[in-house]
Write a sequence for this structure.
């Protein structure tokens, strides 16, 4: 069974930093693109960033580019999101997601999310 | 960036009804569209990929259609467990973008 378990969320002051982690299991992590998606309280979904299976390529959403960095450690089956210069508007539940094995097919597995509060 | 616009923002229907949700992209995205269902307190779940393909395990009453800029999600014979918010997402071009969501309720 595919499992994605996020951790690292919490309360941080504006301008601060935080690192989120996602522990993956139940599949061959090193062969999948992975993404972070966030959801502000009571709001819709926003794609944050993704990374190619081997770490050689990554992309970011406009609102986080230059402040957030996505990384992964395939030996540890883990995905990370390093968040710097945090703003109040970054407050959200952050979901770790696995992209479908076929390119352009969406995100077929999601973690339960970790809450980041910037205040 | 590609803007995704869903309509309606909310819909209320009766059990057994057919419900259709629309999603429009600000530019062509071929068939690279996914639909998700999110129930309160839960993570989203992939329903449809490549505009019209049903994800494994999703009931056959869900159906997707469209290509280019206009897409639909149809629920045939609405069930009580379908109460949720539905999102479309374009996966054609970075940055990936979602629609604002459509909240589905039972009358």
């Amino acid at each position: 069974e595919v499992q994605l378990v996020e951790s690292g969320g919490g309360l941080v002051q504006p301008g601060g930093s935080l690192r989120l982690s996602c522990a993956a299991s139940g599949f061959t992590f090193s062969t999948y693109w992975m993404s972070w998606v966030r959801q502000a309280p009571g709001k819709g979904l926003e794609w944050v960033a993704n990374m190619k299976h081997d770490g050689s390529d990554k992309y970011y959403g406009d609102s986080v580019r230059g402040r957030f960095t996505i990384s992964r450690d395939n030996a540890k089956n883990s995905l990370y999101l390093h968040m710097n210069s945090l703003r109040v508007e970054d407050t959200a539940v952050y979901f770790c997601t696995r992209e479908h094995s076929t390119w352009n097919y969406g995100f077929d597995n999601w973690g339960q999310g970790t809450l980041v509060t910037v205040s | 960036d590609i803007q995704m616009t869903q309509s309606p923002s909310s819909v209320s229907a009766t059990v057994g009804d057919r419900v259709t949700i629309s999603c429009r992209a600000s530019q062509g995205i071929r068939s690279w569209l996914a639909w998700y269902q999110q129930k309160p307190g839960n993570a989203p779940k992939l329903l449809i990929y490549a505009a019209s393909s049903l994800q494994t395990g999703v009931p056959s009453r869900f159906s997707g259609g469209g290509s280019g800029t206009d897409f639909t999600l149809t629920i045939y014979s609405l069930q009580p467990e379908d109460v949720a918010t539905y999102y479309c997402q374009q996966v054609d071009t970075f940055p990936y973008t979602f629609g604002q969501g459509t909240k589905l309720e039972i009358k």
Observations:
- The radius of gyration of chain B is 13 Å.
- The CA atoms of residues 1 and 31 of chain B lie 17 Å apart.
- The mean pLDDT of chain B is 97.
- Chain B touches chain A at residues 1, 32, 34, 36, 38, 42-46, 49-50, 53, 55, 87, 89, 91-92, 94-101 (CB under 8 Å).
